[in-house]
Every structure is written in structure tokens, then in C-alpha cells.
Amino acid sequence: MGINVSRNADLASNEWLQRFVGRQHIAHDDEAFWNGLLNYNIVIPENSQDQLSLDSRLETLCQSFIGNNLKTGNFGSLITVFLEKATELLSLSDQESNMHVWQTFNALFIIRTLIKYINETGSEFQLLQHFEALPSADLVKAAEEQQQQQQQQMASIAIEATEQATLAALIVDGAKFETFIDALVNLIVVIPVKEFTYHLHLESVNTLITLLAVHLFAQPTDKSIVFRTIYKCQHANVLMSALLHFVARMVEVPHTMFGSTSAGSFVFGIAESLLSIFTFRKQQDILKTSNATGEELSQQFRTHYPLANQSLLLILILTNHCTAQDNAYRTSLFGCADSKDSPKQGTVSFQIDFSAVYETLCRIVTIDQATLLLYLLLHRNERFYRFVMQQQDLELLVIPILQTLYNAPDSNSHHIYMSLIVLLILSEDEGFNKNVHTILLKNISWYTERTISEISLGGILILIVIRTIQYNMLKMRDKYLHTNCLAALANMSGHFRALHPYVAQRLVSLFETLARKHTRLDAQLKEPADSAVFVNVSTTPEDMMQDLSVLEEVLRMVLEILNSCLTNQLVYCPNLVYTLLYKRSVFEGFRSHHAFQDVIQNIDMVVGFFSSRLQRVQEQRGELGVSEVLEVISKGASQWSSDRLRKFPDLKFKYVEEDAPEEFFIPYVWTLVCKYGCVHFSSESIKSVTTDVAC
């Protein structure tokens, strides 16, 4: 190591590391040793294979560390060295701090590596033992002193240090661990992000994630000291502010670590040619930059913007755990405000440029973790929701979400579900439902079902939601997904305008497809039990009855959506009227059905009114072309009165988070951390991703 770039093969024989993990105590003020240990450069693992390779070469050293540290206290000495260097950084100039940043980073990298090893092979209890361990002679002395003190101290941890023939028990107060957490937060929120500090910020965020990952391995049943310490929340607002700023600014990783390409410094392992691959650029049209799949963008985001990526994941971890208690990080995210506003004092956790947050989310919303952050902000932060609703370029946000749904076979079910919920939340705003039909899009290359030269944002939104319903019917058969799709369409239906002919066709075809399925299923149920109709022995009549019930609910909702549009926007939707006239026969089998007849009466009244007008014109002119039929419909619409129709309640649906949301979100968040994060954990060591730990 020393001033040379470390090679993984050399790690086991490195004299500095051997001394550190050995049986000899190394004092924190032994400058010669710490300078020797911390003056190294290392290639940071970029993927799970790199991490596995590094872990295998560190295994022997880590085992020696576990066996000796409780007696030597060398980990505590390293923590002290790190704390001193982190404190000194706050008062140094840029020129003075370059070398200091390097050594602070190196100390923190070793600390994180050891935390990760203890998490994967031990327990939270053992992790805290190593944080607080003192040299053995001091252990006995400290134990005698503490026996004379009061035994009740918050965050106390019982550790046992075994020597050859004696056992000394020590109650420690966790002070060093708390001080370490404070130091990490200070590095993140106080030190400005510059080229030579970028990796120190990244390592600080990664260390917090690694500490919180105790949830993956230990699954503690008692109160987690790690979580309780991090959630003490003295710095919740400033930490959440810093993390969200890291995401919004999306600073690209420097080409070199610590701002130097001179001999002896580490050049970050990204070829220059690769830097041009990343497609996130503000000046580019989002339709042209969104050819990459969400999976590809996730990898690019992690590679080129690791600080933003890791900060985003840490935000999700902090806000989704401990939701049953007062979670100051969650409160902070939901209480932030636009820095351009002047909100009342005491009501705002922190201020940030909402424009920057919005623009960044538009660029990366096809990534799972970005969709999840967008959901949290829209659902829980009223200020941000109102800000988004005021934007004139909503297509930049909505189109990537629609692409995620369009590429459903390439997306995971959680991502599809969250994307639909975001659309549902957006559709709760009447202004949004009106605006999407005024935004015109041209030549949407990614939509391949049909070439459409021009369509409104509302039109393409309807097409994608309908397609998602049909995909769900064939593949996923998820009732909640159906419900959210239909709820979004229902919210929008009273504002449908200028529907493209193809959109009108797909709306009616959705009913037609569902109607055929209903007829087929109903016929099967009426057949004798021993009939050949039941060729699938795994499908029971009870299952089919349940399917029929769900299908009738969906059919009813589609009819109500059509009725809502005709009641509120008939004059602006001639293409829908045209399609209903052309496809009037699809409703015949349902006119007498008790579940549908009241709504179909309205549709029949509209169809009857325009049919009679067309018949009169045809008697005068003869056969009419499409444009002539539309002309008749438009003239008739001006004389139509919706008062003729039976009144139904307005369709208004609001997303409500289910009870115990952590059962969905916590496993999802940790899956994203493991799949898309820069910290690679041993999959063999992960016990399970359960709902929560006590805080």
C-alpha cells in the first residue's frame, strides 16, 4: 500500500494491515503507523463481482481482526483517528485539506469494510462491541470504575471481553458510536461537494447505508441501537436537505479521486469514451433520450452519478423505516418547501429549489428509486404537489412514467404499481386532467402499436393505461392494479377532450374485450359440472365465480367512464360518439343485466339521438363518409343537452395508502439498495428483507 495503488492480491501480506488486525494495541496518537496505513490508493469495487473478489482477499485479515480487536481496541483507535481528521477538515483550506481528505476517506473506507464484514458474519451486538472495545488492561480498569457509577444509561451495551483465563464484563454507553454518526453527518452537510471531496461524501453516505443494513443481516428482535442512534434526529433536517440537494444537483463523478492525476493518485476507472454514453442532458428532448430501458438507466445513474444515486437510496431508507413512530427524517422530507417561496416560519423543515428537484426527477423517473421518491413527494408533500401541478411541461414527467408502463414486461411489478399510483395521484387534480389534453405530442417513436403523427398527452396516457389493463388481464391478474388503472381513467374521464380516433376506438374496444370474456365465463359457469368446458382441472367453479365478479366490477367502471365523458364533454369528443355509433352492438348483451342497465341507458340515449340525426341526413344526401358523419355529430352535439341523461355521482377517486405500508415499502427499498446501490452486500448472508426494525 503506502503511496502505491493497492492490488487485492497484496492485501493479506500488507504489513500495515497485519499490524492493525494483530494482537498489539496501536494507540490513536501513533502518527507513524497511521500515516503508513492511511497513505494508500485503492480501486473501489464497482460491482458485486469486484466486491466478492475484494472480500475473499480480506477474509483472513477480517478473521484476525474479529479475534483480536476486543483485546487490542485498534478499531476504536482508528475511529478516533477518523474523528480527529474529520474535525480538522472543517477548519482547513482547500489546498491544505487535499491530503487530509484522502486520508480521511481511506480511514472511512477501512471502517466501512469492517462494518460490512461484521454485519454479514456477526450481529449488531458484536458490531457495537468492536466500536467500544478498549485495550484489555484498560478494560479491567474501566469496568472497575463503571461499577461505582449508576447502571442506568441510555443506549448501554453489554460486552464481554474474554482473555485466556479471565472474563471482564463492561457496560459501555455507546458514546463513541454516537460521535461517529455525528461526524458522518457533519462531513455530509458541512463540507462542500468539490472534485476532491466528492468521494469522501460518497463514502460517508455509503457508511450510513452499511450501518443501516444491519436490518438485512441481524434482524434484531430487540430495539436496534444502530437505528435508535441514527434516528435520534438532532440533524434530521440538515441531513435530509443535504441528501436531497445531492440528488437534485446530480453532480457527475470526477474523473479522478481527490482532484489529482499526478503519479501516485488513483484515476477513477471509467474510460473517457464511456462518459458520453449517459443520456441525461437537459437540452435534449426527453423522447429522444428515453430509448434506454429503466434497467440500463439505473446502471448508468449508478456509474456516473453515484453520490446522487446513493443519497436517493439513503433518503428512501430513512423515510420508510420507523413509520409507526415519529420519524424526523420522514417529517423533514414531507415538510420541505421551495427556496423561491417565503413560507411562514416554523412550518418548513428546509428549503430547496423545487425546479431542480422536478427537473432531475423528470430525467430519471424511469428508475425505480426515482419513481419511489416522486411518489413520496407527491403523496406527502403538499407544497411539492402544488408546484408540479403548476408546471407547463408536464409531459417531461408523465411520458417517462408512461414508458415504464409501456415496457411492463421489462419492469418489475413493484415499479409498475408505483408508476400507476403516481398517475392516480396526478389525476386527482382537475387542472392536470384539463392540461394533459392541451399538450400536443408529435411522432412518438416508442409507441409501436400504431403510427400516430400527433396526439395529446391525455390521449397517449389513456392508451397506455388501457394497454396496462389488458396486459394485467393476461399476465399479472392483479386486482389492485386494475383498480388503480380504472381510478386514474375515471378521474380524468370528466375532462376527456379532443380524443384521437384511435383513443376512442381503444376505449370502446376495452369494453368489447371485457364483454367477450364475461360472456365466455358466464357460459362456462352455466354448463354442467362434468362438461368438457372445464378442461382446466385447476380452475374451480368458485374461482370462476370470483373472476366473473371482478370482471363485472371492471365492466361497470368502464361504462361509468364512458358515461362520465358523455355527460361532461360530449361536445368535445365527436370521435368517441362516432365509435359508439359504429360499435353499438357490443352493448346489446348487457342492456338487461342488473349490474349495467342503468349506465347503458345513458349510452343508448346518446347513440339513439345521433343515430336518428344521421338517418335523416342520409335520407337527404345518401351514404355519408367519415368526415361527413363527424360533421353531423358536431352539429348535433351543439344541440344536445346532457340534462336528458340520468345523473350519476362524479367519478372522483383518491389514493389512500393501505395500513402497514412498511410491509410493501421496506422490502422494496432494500431490494433497490442491493440491486442498484454502490455498496454490494453478500447475498448469502442476507437472512430476509422483513418489514421493519424497532426504533
TrEMBL record:
Gene Ontology cellular-component annotations: Golgi apparatus
> What biological-process GO terms show up in the record?
Golgi organization
Name of the protein in its database record: Dymeclin
InterPro entries listed in its UniProt record: Dymeclin (IPR019142)
Organism, per UniProt?
Drosophila hydei (Fruit fly)
Annotated keywords: Lipoprotein, Myristate
Concerning its family, UniProt says: Belongs to the dymeclin family.
Which sequence ranges are marked TM in the entry? none
Does the record's keyword annotation contain Lipoprotein? yes
